[in-house]
Every structure is written in C-alpha cells, then in structure tokens.
Amino acid sequence: MKRVITYGTYDLLHWGHINLLKRAKDLGDYLIVAISTDAFNKLKGKEAYYCFEQRKMILEAVRYVDEVIPEKNWEQKVYDVEKYSVDIFLMGDDWEGEFDFLKEKCEVIYLPRTSGISTTKIKNELMQN
Ligand code: C2G
C-alpha cells in the first residue's frame, strides 16, 4: 500500500493538474493532496479564484484523489510525511530540488510539468476576451 502525497493551490482545476494527479496515483495506491488554505495562499503571494472549501470539494471529486488535507504553511511537509505514513512525496518539476530535505523520510519525485496550461494563462486569456 504505497502512499503518495503532493501539495498545491489547485485553483481553476485544469488538465495540467489532472495530468499530475493521474501520474501521482499511478505511482502508488493512495493519493493525498494537500491544498493551500486561503491564508497560506496569501503567504505564497497567490489569490485563488475558488476558496479553500470549493477547491477541496472539487479535488475530492477527482477519481485519482483519495484524501484532501489543508496546506497551512511551508513547514508542515516533514510532519505530514510521518503523520500520513507517506512513501512518495511528489511535485511538478517547477519545484525541482526544493524539497530534497524530505529524501531522508521518503522518496521524492519531481514530474515534468504539463506545458501550455496554467491557472495564470487561463485568467490572462479570459481577461483578453
Ligand atoms: N502543475 C503541472 N503542470 C501545470 C501546472 C501545474 O504539473 N501545467 C503541477 C505543479 O507543478 C504542482 C501542481 O500541479 O505540482 C499544483 O500546481 P499549483 O496549484 O500551481 O501549485 P503551487 O502554487 O506550485 O503550490 O508547497 C507547495 C506549494 O503549495 C505548491
């Protein structure tokens, strides 16, 4: 029973997110997604269109996702890995190397981002219309 965890804002859910979640689930049996709370998003300098509760509800409906937990700060990852008995910590490779400190606790995998799509791109293109 391989347990995988990944983190993110997951606003305006799009096929790039789904591509990551599918690959993450394919690497294990149980996928936990920690989504940034609205307060943590502010810390990340991000303003999500959907609030935390809405983003949580949407992700819980994704077939690859088994559990959604809140990401409240940068420090929680090392505790989450213990608390949820995580085997694989996984992120898109725009985060390459950023979380290597977790390597002593679990496998750390960075997967190629899906090019051509992002929440920012969606927002910008919608604003142009
Ligand atoms: N992603 C991707 N391809 C895209 C867009 C996003 O693979 N075209 C991946 C990102 O690499 C990330 C996940 O989808 O692994 C979620 O992306 P965001 O919601 O943008 O997450 P981010 O703001 O990077 O937050 O502590 C980690 C942070 O919470 C990550």
Question: Can you offer a commentary on this structure?
Answer:
Helix content is 34%, strand content 22%. It is an alpha/beta fold and 129 residues long. It has a five-stranded parallel beta sheet with strand order 3-2-1-4-5. Helix 1 links the parallel strand 1 and strand 2. The longest helix has 12 residues. The model has no long low-confidence stretch (mean pLDDT 97). The protein binds [cytidine-5'-phosphate] glycerylphosphoric acid ester. [cytidine-5'-phosphate] glycerylphosphoric acid ester binds next to strand 1, helix 1 and strand 4.
Q: Topology of this protein?
A:
Layout: E1 3-8, H1 15-26, E2 30-36, H2 38-43, H3 52-60, E3 67-71, H4 77-83, E4 88-92, E5 107-111, H5 119-128
Parallel strand pairs: 1-2, 1-4, 2-3, 4-5
The chain binds [cytidine-5'-phosphate] glycerylphosphoric acid ester.
Summarize the model shown.
It contains five helices and five strands. The chain is an alpha/beta fold.
